[in-house]
Backbone:
């Protein structure tokens, strides 16, 4: 089926609309959302249109006068300065589950080149991308659109290049597409180092020794998810990414200056305003478990936009995947007054549950005692 033949969002097509067929046609095209735009689609196909109840609740759940905490990581080797930063991270992790970091050592040109590299990958000859298109998660480097395409109520308006370091800590440069290879290799090195620093600060924020999370190898497994959100002709009907929490200990996100990321705070959606040279950090489900609910993994989403593309790169720090390693609430945080909320878990189990459900379904309940 030609991808330009997708049913548009008009109710006139309701009688002949077959969702399963439309999903398969989109998947089989291997062209992603950008393929729809390239084919001249002027309306959002019905497989992307959100359910009416979701659209109806939008009107009173948005706040634009709040801002996610911004934390300056400069001079954290100085004792007094480090204490202040640790306290800011503790408050942000408990109250928001999100914060932005500036002066984090990663050079601005490394960030800019990664954004440019991701753009080059997604905007290259479609046939090159199609050779990497798969839903097989065993492929360490793969191109896809909507990992939960067949489980979600509505598809999201984005395409993704995945670079997985879940199983092996080593990355073969030849596996990375040439369009972004040099940029990705340098970016991975810098963000891996930043992750270790953040885990030190988060350990201290919980009153633990600074090497607590790194000694448990929480910073070891990583997946880099390189998103491309094309301009959308009807942005109010769909989302770039449905509301979700992250199946990781920690996420470090690079976003361009277009904006669109929103975080749920006190039952309101708050924009995460892009900061030049800044990186967004959020607590993942696994760190909420290990902190025994002291730190919060909160819902966030990406709205669609008439302007585009938006580029972002999320690094998920997922700990040890293979060989199996048991994680659970930190023993030092458990007491008679503060009993354990969660059972111990394997990262592999958590990831499997994540990929077996729609993006907007939390996995924390699976592991509650």
Residues:
């Amino acid at each position: 089926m030609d991808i330009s033949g997708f049913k548009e969002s008009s109710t006139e097509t309701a009688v002949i609309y077959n969702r399963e067929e439309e999903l398969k046609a989109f998947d089989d095209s291997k062209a992603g959302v950008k393929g729809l735009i390239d084919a001249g689609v002027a309306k959002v196909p019905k497989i992307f249109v959100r359910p009416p109840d979701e659209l109806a609740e939008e009107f009173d759940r948005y706040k634009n006068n709040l801002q996610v905490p911004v934390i300056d990581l400069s001079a954290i080797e100085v004792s007094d300065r480090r204490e202040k930063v640790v306290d800011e991270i503790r408050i942000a992790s408990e109250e928001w589950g999100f914060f932005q970091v500036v002066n984090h050592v990663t050079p601005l040109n490394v960030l800019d080149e990664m954004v440019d590299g991701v753009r080059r990958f997604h905007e290259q000859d479609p046939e090159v991308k199609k050779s990497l298109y798969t839903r097989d998660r065993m492929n360490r480097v793969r191109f896809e659109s909507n990992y939960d395409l067949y489980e979600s109520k509505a598809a999201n308006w984005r395409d993704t290049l995945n670079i997985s370091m879940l199983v092996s800590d080593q990355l073969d440069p030849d596996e990375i597409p040439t369009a972004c290879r040099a940029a990705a290799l340098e970016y991975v090195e810098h963000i891996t180092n930043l992750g270790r620093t953040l885990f030190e600060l988060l350990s201290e924020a919980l009153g633990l020794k600074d090497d607590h999370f790194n000694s448990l190898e929480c910073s070891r497994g990583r997946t880099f998810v390189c998103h491309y959100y094309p301009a959308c002709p009807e942005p109010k009907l769909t989302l770039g990414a449905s509301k979700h929490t992250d199946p990781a200990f920690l996420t470090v996100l690079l976003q361009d200056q277009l904006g669109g990321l929103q975080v749920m705070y006190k039952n309101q959606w708050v924009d995460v305003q892009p900061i030049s040279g800044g990186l967004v950090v959020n607590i993942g489900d696994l760190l909420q478990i290990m902190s025994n609910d002291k730190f919060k993994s909160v819902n966030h989403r990406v709205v669609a936009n008439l302007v585009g593309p938006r580029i972002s790169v999320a690094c998920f720090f997922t700990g040890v995947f293979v060989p199996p390693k048991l994680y659970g609430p930190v023993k030092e945080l458990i007491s008679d007054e503060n009993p354990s909320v969660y059972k111990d878990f394997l990262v592999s189990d958590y990831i499997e549950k994540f990929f077996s459900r729609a993006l907007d379904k939390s996995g924390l309940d699976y592991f509650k005692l």
Summary: The chain has a mean pLDDT of 92. Residues 90 and 205 are 5 Å apart (CA to CA). The longest helix spans residues 181-205.
